[in-house]
Design a protein that fits this description.
Blueprint: E1 2-7, H1 13-21, E2 31-34, H2 40-50, H3 56-80, E3 85-88, H4 91-101, H5 111-119, E4 128-133, H6 136-143, H7 152-168, E5 173-177, H8 182-196
Parallel strand pairs: 1-3, 1-4, 2-3, 4-5
Helix pairs in contact: 2-3, 3-4, 4-5, 4-7, 6-7
């Protein structure tokens, strides 16, 4: 089973992922991973994140390459071994974030749909996605607004894309109110995954 954690920067995904590493609801031999990865593909992504002038289409394909390598090297092998895989960010981040970034590319009437089409033939959809829901202003404040992807106006477009993804696949997404105190959020995470697993 592939479980993904999604949401805006500052929504608490990474904190929840760390919590799940020691949570009794997740098998002890589960595979924990993330995107961007720590491979050289992921390093290229991190460099593009740090560059405010990075070309948005080129950046999409850096993320896509990282996702392809992640699938080949980590996700598919673990799933084939029967492991539970927990990923802090996955393909939905790409759809939501790069879908918001590509609005400046001529000829793309629906950037979100374009990004999904690029991935559709080969990606492996998650089985369950925990969506940590927080408003863009709170997300920007929590994340520190340190790069181009952590600005409230940009995050508002990303959130709209996440809402489209949820509308398209409501049975896969579990919305978690991430504006609540951290203990309450983590308790909800455990409850949801106890039911799933």
């Amino acid at each position: 089973m592939l479980i993904t954690l999604e949401g805006l920067d500052g929504s608490g995904k990474s904190t929840a992922t760390e919590h799940l590493r020691s949570s009794p609801v997740v098998p002890a031999d589960a595979t924990f991973t993330r995107e961007p990865t720590d491979s050289w593909y992921g390093e290229a992504v991190e460099r593009s994140i740090a560059d405010p002038d990075a070309d948005s289409l080129a950046e999409l394909f850096l993320y896509t390459a990282d996702h392809a390598a992640h699938l080949a090297d980590v996700v598919r092998p673990a799933l084939e071994d029967g492991d539970v895989v927990v990923s802090d960010r996955y393909s939905d981040s790409r759809y939501a974030y790069q879908g918001a970034t590509l609005t400046d590319v001529d000829g793309l009437d629906d950037p979100l749909a374009y990004v999904r089409e690029v991935h559709a033939p080969w990606t492996r959809p998650p089985d369950v996605t925990l969506y940590f829901d927080v408003d863009p202003e709170t997300a920007a404040e929590r994340s520190g607004a340190t790069n181009k992807f952590e600005q409230a106006a940009y995050l508002a477009r990303v959130r709209e894309n996440y809402e489209r993804l949820i509308d398209d696949d409501p049975d896969r997404f579990v919305r978690i109110d991430a504006t609540r105190p951290q203990d309450a959020v983590l308790e909800t995470v455990d409850d949801v995954l106890a039911d799933v697993l």
